[in-house]
Amino acid sequence: MSPVRVGGLGGGQPSSVARQAPVPNLAVLAPWFLLVLEVFSLWATFTALVRVKRPAAFALPTMMTSLVTGEWPLFQIIWQGAAAALLVALGGLDGIAGSVGLVALAMSWTGLVAVRLVQSRARPTAEAALRRGLGDDYLDHLSVERRAALRDRPGPAITLLPFHHDATGIVRQQNISYGDHRKRHLLDVYRPAAGEGLLPVIIQIHGGGWVTGHKRQQGMPLVHRLVRNGYVAVSINYRLAPKYRMPEQLIDVKRAIAWTREHIAAHGGDPNMIMVTGGSAGGHLSALAALTPNDPEYQPGFESADTSVSACLPFYGPTDFTDRDGLRGRIDSFEVLLKHTVMPGGMRDAPDLYRAMSPIDHIRADAPPFFIIQGAIDVLVRREENRLFAERLASVSEAPVVYWEVPGAQHAFDMLNSRRCSAAVDACERFAGWVVADAAARNRTER
After folding, report:
1. Which of 93, 128, 204, 231 is the least buried, fewest Cβ under 10 Å from its Cβ?
2. Mean pLDDT of 394-416
3. Backbone angles phi, psi at 157, to 5 degrees
């Protein structure tokens, strides 16, 4: 009986039955890739139109998906169309999965048209909010020069250049120290290269959940727009959690306000016309600082400094750390963030501090004018929270309170150029112009 030869052993030839690793068949996979791509695209479009509140654990990725899709729908159509065309060329329509994917693509594009229509409502709703809060004739109070500088529509390339900020005629002085901390007690001053007299000042406070963020990362569309039209801007860093817990961040903001009042005249700014703004955590800190002027508890070592402000323009900032009205629901990721990262413990551990760090607990009759801006589909800060804050503040404050709920806007919608961001920047410019004009009129009356 002859021995059996095994291919590949003893120098023999490989057996013809030896198999090679299978090569993926793109024609087979393409329909499934197309299905996955377009179902995800449809989901992204859905999140740009509808507020998705649950599950809370997915709030941040949902926010990012909704933000990118909602602010730049044209880019979504371009990349979705390019990716779908490539997959179709590779055989994406050879199976039923691909056909279903193409239906999802059509639905996504229909939704993106709706997204664009919702975007178009930002500017008229902003104007309506300003008129409700300041009066139908509020623009008549502005100087001729400030009225002439206002925009009624975004620039032609606003959606094509999301990262571009026109710095023409702007001088920036970087990393000025306003405190003892080497890295976080720094600020940048933006001022017009040319101008006469002392100009109104706006302090920009970055967001980032009190744990991250930088003075050059947020609020830049607003900063550049205002400075180019006759304002001085101060953008600040502050100490971050979890190394530094509340109220250290508020103390830093007040320290920056005190520095601004003392030194800003040397940079062309008016120390008697200081406004504060910021988004998210920065919105919270700006509102809290505006409502606790000159409070010695939050001004250790500079108790006598004047930290009052002339106006506050908070973007989507949380206003109630205690959730006393039960607006967030039973399970909420924000409560976890506060307990383990921002505050020294849970609310049971420090109930007084939770209330003290809630702007809604500091509502007062002598509050400065407020322009509260909140995204309608924000999944990180609930619109109901800022609605309630605005209503309660307006019922007490002797100064105007403007509340603008931005149609279709997600958290952080104003960070980069978009049509909605442009509408918000222009609305803030109008509000700030009114504040400046109103203060000037009152000063003339008092004289």
Report:
1. 128
2. 97
3. -110, 20
Q: What H or E segment, with its residue span, contains residue 220?
A: helix 220-228
DSSP 281-334: HHHHHHHHHHHSTT-GGG-TT-TTS----SEEEEES----TT-TT--S-SS-HH
CA dihedral 118, 124, 126, 128 (to 10 degrees): -130
Query: What tokens appear for 155 in the block?
Result: 């620039």
Report the first-to-last Cα separation within the chain, whole angstroms.
Answer: 123
Q: 122-446 has which fold?
A: Rossmann fold (3.40.50)
Give the pLDDT score at 7.
Answer: 45
Across the range 155-176, mean pLDDT stands at 85
Q: Residue 22's CB: how many other CB atoms inside 10 A?
A: 6
Q: What average pLDDT does the segment 73-92 reach?
A: 86
Report the distance separating Cα 220 and Cα 201, nearest Å: 15
pLDDT in tens, 235-244: 999 999 999 9
pLDDT of residue 225 exceeding 80:
yes
CB of 150 closer than 8 Å to CB of 225: no
Tokens standing for 143?
A: 């100087």
Eight-class DSSP state of 341: I
**pLDDT tens digits along 309-334:** 999 999 999 999 999 998 876 556 78
Q: What is the pLDDT of residue 25?
A: 60
Q: Is the dihedral of CA 122, 393, 314, 347 positive or negative?
A: negative
Instruction: Give the model's pLDDT for residue 147.
Output: 95
Among 312, 309, 311, 230, residue whose Cα is nearest residue 269: 230
Q: Rounded to whole angstroms, what are the CA distances from 351 to 249, 287, 288, 354?
A: 18, 20, 17, 5
- What's the mean per-residue pLDDT of the chain? 90
CB 206 within 8 A of CB 219: yes
Residues in the chain: 447
Give the catalytic positions in this structure.
280, 378, 411
What's residue 9's pLDDT? 43
CB atoms within 10 A of CB 392: 14
Kind and range of the H or E run holding 201 = strand 199-205
Q: Which of 386, 17, 72 is nearest to 64 (CA)?
A: 72
What residue segments make up the domains of the chain, in order of their start? 26-119, 122-446
Residues 374, 306 contacting (CB under 8 angstroms): no
Over its C-alpha atoms, the chain yields an Rg (Å, rounded) of 27
Q: Rounded CA gap, 199 and 35, in Å?
A: 56
